[in-house]
Amino acid sequence: MKKFGFTLAEIMIVVGLLGVVAALTIPNLSYNKMKREYAVKIKHFYSQVDNAVAQMELEKGSFRDMKLPANNRAAYEWYMANVDPFIGHKYIKNPDADQPFIYLKDGARIQLYKGGCVDLSYDVNGDAGNGKVGREYFVFLFCFSNDNREYWFGDKNTFWGVYGSGIQGKDITRQDMINKCNTEPAWCSKLLQYDDWEFKSDYPKFH
Q1: Is a pLDDT exceeding 70 seen at residue 20?
Q2: Cβ partners under 8 Å of residue 203, min gap 6
Q3: How far apart are CA 73 and CA 67, in angstroms?
Q4: Three-class SS of residue 122?
């Protein structure tokens, strides 16, 4: 009776091929897992602030009665008094600085900047990542005037939202958002929101 088996050379070839497949597949799986984790954290944070603003209005009155903070420090103090009580934080780094870092319980980090609105930068990885805008670092806005709300959100009744002009955005296409994300990474939050907080395969900052 004739016996069949594999030679050592054949076994080595198979093992080598399996190694190549694993080398190509495992990093991609890990990469996709990271994108899903980022997306979940960003979506959760955005929803948390949405709810915090609603609670703030119930307890403290309409955002329409609030004035734009005068500087970065005042923006931080406004956030801590009006939004943080409904979200919470883990700790504050450099609490006496002009722009303290606020660390959240999930490891993310935020910072406030006073411009025409109050910019909120959200870094999904806190101190752990490279802080690349549109990949780990995203920009959102609190807008205190009708003009700024109309400009940034296209709606005078929206106080909190993504970075990306509402007036320009009324007829903007998804491809326009991709182009903007490429050239002005702060716009990536608008694309991400448009895609229901999912990093699609053509999302620019992961290529």
Answers
A1: no
A2: 178, 181, 188, 191, 192, 195
A3: 14
A4: strand
pTM of the model: 0.83
pLDDT of residue 128: 84
Average pLDDT estimate for 148-160: 93
Work out the number of other CB atoms within 10 angstroms of the CB of residue 198: 13
49 touches 87 (CB < 8 A): yes
Task: Write out the DSSP string of 46-61.
Answer: HHHHHHHHHHHHHHH-
Taking residue 57's Cβ as centre, other Cβ atoms within 10 Å add up to: 16
Residues in the chain: 207
∠ Cα 186 148 174 (to 5°):
45
The pLDDT assigned to 22 comes to 46
Least confident of 34-48, 87-101, 124-138, 143-157: 124-138
Residue 23 token pair? 């080398």
Query: Is there a contact between 172 and 178 (Cβ–Cβ < 8 Å)?
Result: no
CA distances from 117 to 5, 106, 108, 161 (A): 73, 26, 22, 11
Q: How many CA atoms lie within 13 A of 37 on its CB side?
A: 12
Element (H, E) at 180: helix 174-183
Q: Read off φ and ψ for residue 55, nearest 5 degrees.
A: -65, -40
Q: How far apart are CA 171 and CA 39, in angstroms?
A: 25
Please, which residues have CB within 8 angstroms of residue 139's CB and are 6 or more apart in sequence?
A: 119, 120, 121, 122, 133, 162, 163, 186, 189
Q: What's the pLDDT at 131? A: 76
133 beta partners: 137
